[in-house]
Amino acid sequence: MATRPRNLGERLKVGAKWSSAEILFSLPVRLGTLAILARLLTPTEFGLFAAAVTVIEFVRPLGTLSMDHALVQSKNLSTESIAFASVLALGLSSVIAAAIALGADAVLLLYDDPDVPSLLIALALSGPLAAMSGLLLAVLRRKLAFRELSILTLLSSTIAALASIVAAAAGWGVWALVTGYYLDLALRALFALFLVRPSFVRPRVGEEAHGLLRFGVGGTLSLMLNFWALHGDYVVIGSVLGPKPLGFYSRAYQLISTVPGMLGRLHNMVLFPAFSRAQSDKGYLANALLVGTEATAALTLPLCAWGLVLGPEIIFVLLGPGWEEAVIPFQVLSLGVYFRSGYRFAASIVFATGHVFALSVCQGIYGILIVSGALFGTRWGIVGVAIATLLALLVFYVLLYALTARVSGASAWSFIRVHSRPALGFVIVLATAALGRSWLLTLGWPPVLILITTVALGILALSGATRVLKNRLWGDFLYEQGLTAVGRRAPATEVEDQEHDDLGA
Predict the structure, then answer these.
(1) Which residue from 68, 503, 475, 490 is spatially nearest to 286, judged by alpha carbons?
(2) Contact present, 414 and 290 (Cβ < 8 Å)
(3) 45-57: average pLDDT
(4) 3-state SS of 226-258?
(5) Full-model pTM
(6) Which of 11, 37, 75, 138 could bridge to 68 as Cys pair (CB 3.0-4.6 Å)?
(7) pLDDT of residue 8
(8) In angstroms, what CA-CA distances link 352 with 4, 87, 121, 219?
């Protein structure tokens, strides 16, 4: 019988608490930064940056051969193998950075704007820095150093955000975004270097190194396909419609990606290392899949409802006037908040068990659907692209969860069952938001008060329904954690106690 690492459940809980605290503090920083920069920079400047950074982030896994993920996933790892991964990643990233800088003008084949090549050259030079940062952070992730990772990430992102705001206020334009991009990478590398204090030894090419390479090749393919799937619509919009529509679309996309991105960090920094430790225990992984899926659905489905109904108010409050073209794409993409969060959770299990090539197949299908759908959707502008992106995301979500169920041994019925209560919560919040917003509009309330009041009404309705129906609409895990936080013990059945004991053992 497979044995799972001792105290893994407790370390997982610690990691979840630290990552949740990071999300709690970084969310207002991210949204505040976005709101300020949207008033200092133009949609065209955001579009130019999105066009250039899409190319850089797409080839980045190729530059490191996913050695950072390989270090975390490997069952056994020596100092010499870490040195091998570091030399390989730094060497490849330097070569890729030089190649991009020398061939930057080729990007004009995709984006017909003379400012993109100079941005691409500037961002390409960040390759070795990003590789070093990723490798050092991978060591901390493998050690399950959740507290250090959370503090490091929060500090670096906050300082970089402030630097971007200052540079934008000084009139640097799109280069203010480049400044924040570089500073974030540099601070992560510096802080991680201080925490890890790596020892420099001679690299060794042995069986461990071969294992790293096998995972790295599959992981690189998977990550590149995933990034293409996530940003293929950017490329289509930028090349077909131009940088200004891309600016509107990318801001809407960034807003709806905020919560999935933060939960993705929780999966990447906490769950992926933990699941890698227990990768041979199917019972553990199946139970974790069901608990995590219900918690994710219960947390994000209300956000989908609010985004769909309150899109005009959210865009006006966060981005200000002049961004009205982003409203409908934002509303459409809001429906995908749960799917983005859910597939990231499922992918952490697939990645941890080493099924990277199967994951790549799913992501390849996703990428094809994204690009082909976006090309077709451009007939109706960025709204058509948003609809095509949502449909492609739905297909990918189903494919990936079918793969995850096979990997973990979870049944299809149990997966459907854990969605029932969060789905009811979604309907309640959607109805409350639609009725509340309609009523407040007739009263002539300003957007910010409509937004705050409607969200408050939704929370009250969901809480009231939970009490009246005696049903945990927030999901068992979130329900019990909430009661624990306010000092009350959650009632649990014998079966529920056993399930949670299994997860935390």
Answers:
(1) 503
(2) yes
(3) 86
(4) HHHHHHHHHHHHHHHCCHHHHHHHHHHHHHHHH
(5) 0.74
(6) 138
(7) 57
(8) 14, 24, 34, 11
Element (H, E) at 355: none
Q: Cα separation of 140 and 345, whole Å?
A: 20
Taking the CA atoms of residue 24, residue 154, residue 290 and residue 472 in that order, the dihedral angle to the nearest 10 degrees is -10
Give the residue carrying structure tokens 């002539």.
Answer: 444
* Cβ proximity of 63 and 223 under 8 Å: no
Distances from the Cα of 286 to the Cαs of 145, 278, 340, in angstroms? 25, 11, 20
Helix axes 337-352, 243-266, angle to 10 degrees: 50
Tokens read off for 440: 């407040």
The dihedral over CA atoms of 34, 39, 42, 43, expressed in degrees to the nearest 10, equals 50
Query: Could you give the maximum distance between any two Cα atoms of the chain, in Å?
Result: 72
Which one, of 185, 151, 181, 149, lies nearest residue 163 by Cα? 181
Nearest to 474 by CA among 489, 459, 488, 485: 459
pLDDT tens digits, residue range 15-42?
Answer: 667 777 777 788 888 889 988 999 999 9
Where in the chain are the domains?
8-418
CB 428 within 8 A of CB 461: yes
Angle between helices 116-124 and 43-64 (to 10 degrees): 40
Confidence at residue 469, expressed as pLDDT on a 0 to 100 scale: 64
pLDDT, residue 441, reads 95
Span 431-453, mean pLDDT?
Answer: 94
What value does the mean pLDDT of the chain take? 81
Distance from chain centroid for Cα 121: 26
Poorest-pLDDT segment among 79-83, 269-273, 384-388, 449-453: 269-273
Integer-rounded Cα Rg, in Å, for the chain is 23
Structure tokens at 150: 């959370």
Please say if the pLDDT value at position 499 is more than 50: no
Q: Indicate if the pLDDT at residue 473 is higher than 60.
A: no
Closest residue by Cα to residue 51 from 127, 99, 114, 103: 114
Residue in this structure with the two tokens 């994204």, named with its chain if needed: 370
Q: Do 53 and 288 contact (CB within 8 A), yes or no? A: no
d(CA 320, CA 316): 5
Q: Which of 391, 9, 75, 23 is nearest to 212 (CA)?
A: 75
- Which amino acid, residue 488? R
What are 457's two structure tokens?
A: 């009404």
Integer Cα distance of 108 and 89 in angstroms: 28
